[in-house]
Amino acid sequence: MSIFHVQHRIRVRVDEAIYGITQHGARRFTQTLTRRVLGSGLVDLLTSPHGVDRYTELVAPTWTLGEARAKVIDVRRSTPRSVTLTLAPNDAFTSAHTVKAGQYVNVKVDIDGRRHTRCYSPANTEGSPNLELTIGLHDGGLVSTYLYERARRGMVVGLAGVGGNFVLPAQRPQRILFVSGGSGITPVMAMLRTLVAERHRGEISFVHYARSPREACYREELAAFKDLPRVRVLHGYTRSGAGDLVGSFGPGHLVAAMRSPDVVFVCGPATLVEAVREHCENMYTESFVPPVFEVPANPSGGRITFSDSGIDVVDDGRPLLEQAESAGLTPQSGCRMGICRTCTQRKTAGTVRNLTTGAVSTGPDEDVQICVSVPVGDVELAA
Amino acid sequence: MSHDKITLTPEQADAFGRELDAIKERVMADLGEKDANYIRRVIKAQRTLEVGGRALLFAGVLPPAWLAGTAMLGLSKILDNMEIAHSIMHGQYDWMRDPAISSRSIEWDLDVPADIWRPIHDAHHTNSNIVGMDRDFGYGILRVSEGQRWHPYYLGNPVYAFLMMVLFQYGVALYPLEVERICSGEIRLRDKRETLRAIWKKTRRQMLKEYVAFPLLAGPFAPFVFTGNLSANLMRNVWEFMMIMCGHFPDGTREFSVEETRDESRGMWYFRQVLGSANLTGSKTFHLLSGNLSHQIEHHLYPDMPARRYGDIAPEVQEICERYGIPYNTGPLRRQFGTVVRKIVKLSFPESRSLRRTARGKPVDRVPAAA
Question: Which of A16, A63, A182, B187 could form a disulfide with A56 if both were Cys (CB 3.0 to 4.6 A apart)?
Answer without folding.
Answer: A63
